[in-house]
């Protein structure tokens, strides 16, 4: 199973230990100044992309010396740097893409990264894309039934409707269960739930849900 890990330029303080996600079956992409925490962690990116307008000339020279596959764009472009990285990763047809450095700092960048998870073409592929930081794990799900295991570090689970309505939401094994409930965009009904057993399930028949797993 190929996993592609993408590191953006969000605050370094929100990054988990990147070495915990490293293996011989993954690829690493550095996005703009997101290359630097990779280098600090001793991980040389397989690919680096962006306009690199957020780094110093000295850092750019270091990146040029270290990264073999490197693509620099003009700042004036239609895609964000993170979108360019995701587009490259999807061509590799990975099983999963993890996004680090995609939260915190500039809120426009954060909301832009959430929007990338909602791109229509991503709803019809098997690749799972997750945003991960020290306290949160964020991913999108379409209609279906899913199992979810308890986490000792991220015990809070929220279900956020990302379409005008999410129909038939059912939560089983949760502190606050639901049965065939319709929730509308803007609802906070399903914020901060918890599992009461080692695993639970959630399902719905229509719409798109943003799942957020969080710690305090």
What spatial order of strands do you see in the largest sheet? Answer: 4-3-2-1-5-6-7-14-9-12
Question: What is the N-to-C order of secondary-structure elements (H for helix, E for strand)?
Answer: EEHEHEHEHEEEEEEEEE
- What top-tier CATH class of the largest domain fits best? Alpha Beta
Return residue spans where pLDDT drops below 50 for at least 5 consecutive residues: none
Label the structural class. alpha/beta
Task: Record keyword descriptors for this entry.
single chain, 216 residues, alpha/beta, Rossmann fold, 10-stranded mixed β-sheet, 4-stranded antiparallel β-sheet, 4 helices, elongated
Q: Short summary of the structure?
A:
This protein has 216 residues and is α/β, with parallel strands linked by helices. The chain has helices at 35-40, 57-66, 81-90, 107-117, and strands at residues 3-7, 26-31, 47-50, 70-72, 96-100, 128-132, 136-141, 144-149, 156-161, 165-172, 178-184, 193-194, 199-204, 209-214.
Provide the fold topology.
Layout: E1 3-7, E2 26-31, H1 35-40, E3 47-50, H2 57-66, E4 70-72, H3 81-90, E5 96-100, H4 107-117, E6 128-132, E7 136-141, E8 144-149, E9 156-161, E10 165-172, E11 178-184, E12 193-194, E13 199-204, E14 209-214
Parallel strand pairs: 1-2, 1-5, 2-3, 3-4, 5-6
Antiparallel strand pairs: 6-7, 7-14, 8-13, 9-12, 9-14, 10-11, 10-13
Description:
The protein has 216 residues and is an alpha/beta fold. The protein folds into two domains: 3-134, Rossmann fold (3-Layer(aba) Sandwich), CATH 3.40.50.10240; 141-214, Thiamin pyrophosphokinase, catalytic domain (Rossmann fold, 3-Layer(aba) Sandwich). It contains four helices and 14 strands. It has helices spanning 35-40, 57-66, 81-90, 107-117; strands at 3-7, 26-31, 47-50, 70-72, 96-100, 128-132, 136-141, 144-149, 156-161, 165-172, 178-184, 193-194, 199-204, 209-214. The strands form two sheets. Strands 4-3-2-1-5-6-7-14-9-12 form a ten-stranded mixed β-sheet. Strands 8-13-10-11 form a four-stranded antiparallel β-sheet, with no helix packed on it. A hairpin with a 3-residue loop joins strand 6 and strand 7. It starts with a strand and ends with a strand. The model has no long low-confidence stretch (mean pLDDT 95).
